[in-house]
Structure formats: structure tokens, C-alpha cells
Write a structure and sequence with these properties.
Radius of gyration: 16 Å
Shape: flat
Structural class: mainly alpha
Length: 50
């Protein structure tokens, strides 16, 4: 199902799940601009056991 935005998708998932009819899973797709922004951000991460 294609919805106009993340909020609309969340609302649809919550309403359908609350009704008990189905289980839903939402996958957020990022635009190329959002990926570019994510690549530029610095994150401190150390793998477990490192």
C-alpha cells in the first residue's frame, strides 16, 4: 500500500492492528537526499567485544 507519508502509514498500521484483523509491518524508505544526509553524519560506534 502506498501512502502519502510516514504519519499516514503509522496511523493505518495502528488502526488495522488494533482491530485485530491482521498484523502489519511498516518499512520506511529513504530518499537519496536522506541517504546522503545520513552518510555525512558522524556516529561513534564500537562493536561488542572490540
Amino acid at each position: 500500500m502506498d501512502l502519502p507519508g510516514n504519519i499516514s502509514a503509522a496511523v493505518m498500521g495502528l488502526v488495522v492492528s488494533a482491530a485485530g484483523g491482521v498484523r502489519t509491518s511498516t518499512v520506511v524508505l529513504l530518499s537519496s537526499g536522506e541517504i546522503d544526509e545520513a552518510v555525512r553524519q558522524k556516529v561513534e560506534y564500537r562493536a561488542p567485544g572490540a
